[in-house]
Design a protein that fits this description.
Elements lengths: L1 E6 L6 H12 L2 E4 H11 L2 H11 L6 H14 L5 E5 L5 H13 L6 E6 L2 H15 L7 H15 L2 H7 L3 E5 L4 H15 L5 H11 L1
Parallel strand pairs: 1-3, 1-4, 2-3, 4-5
Helix pairs in contact: 1-9, 2-3, 4-5, 6-7
Bound molecules: adenosine-5'-diphosphate.
The site of adenosine-5'-diphosphate has 18 residues, from helix 2 and helix 3.
Protein name: Adenylate kinase
Keywords: ATP-binding, Cytoplasm, Kinase, Nucleotide biosynthesis, Nucleotide-binding, Transferase
Pfam families: ADK
């Protein structure tokens, strides 16, 4: 399996690049933002509680998103791998993700961070807010709060993956296709050599 964390502040382009990556590598896209918005649309208790926080640009509690990811991993036993988008957003979430993947004998292969400065993020999100219908995209002060939450609570997740030598940063400003090409270059360098594993395993069994 190929498991990638796509990382970066709100508006960095994670969703756009995820769509292209799932097609190229046959992966399942797990966006905690999308999963939460699905809960809101269904009017579940979880959705009602999460909506208040999301509309204010604050994070929902770790155990809520960790539970959703746990369920999603179990719901996709035959996936070729996953793109985690918008998750993990805190160090406890990153630790939990490692534990959940370990239960399935899996791990994160690489984490790719898209770097974009605050003024560009605000511009992009206000533009997205014109059509996305997302309350958190329509108010500049809420957008800036999301960027601040990213800088104070989420940015340290990069250090967690750097310690595991899995952190890679790319400039998120540029042509979508060019950024996609750079992401694919990194993935191709770090993806597991699928063909080698079974052959090695067979050799060991014989020996
Ligand atoms: N992993 C997470 N942990 C906590 N809250 C989350 C997480 N993922 C999404 N959220 C909530 O959902 C909101 C929207 O997330 P998302 O769709 O990823 O948007 P964006 O990255 O564009 O801000 C966040 O501001 C936060 O309130």
């Amino acid at each position: 399996m190929l498991n990638i964390v796509l990382f970066g502040p709100p508006g960095a382009g994670k969703g756009t690049q995820s769509q292209k990556l799932i097609a190229r590598y046959n992966l399942v896209h797990l966006s905690t933002g999308d999963l939460l918005r699905a809960q809101i649309a269904q009017g579940t208790d979880l959705g009602i509680r999460a909506k208040k926080l999301m509309d204010e640009g604050l994070l929902v509690p770790d155990e809520v998103v960790i539970g959703m990811i746990d369920n999603a991993l179990q719901d996709n036993p035959n996936a070729g791998g996953f793109i985690f988008d918008g998750f993990p957003r805190t160090v406890p979430q990153a630790r939990s993700l490692d534990e959940l993947l370990a239960k399935h004998d899996e791990k994160i292969n690489c984490m790719i961070a898209l770097e974009v400065g605050e003024e560009e993020l605000v511009k992009r999100l206000l533009e997205r807010g014109k059509t996305s219908g997302r309350p958190d995209d329509q108010d500049e002060s809420k957008i800036r709060r999301r960027v601040t939450v990213y800088n104070t609570e989420t940015a340290q997740v990069a250090g967690y993956y750097a310690e595991q030598k899995k952190f890679h940063a790319l400039n998120g400003i540029g042509e979508i296709e060019s950024i996609f090409g750079q992401i694919c270059g990194l993935i191709d360098k770090h993806k597991p050599a699928a063909a080698e594993t079974p052959a090695e395993a067979t050799k060991e069994v014989k020996a």
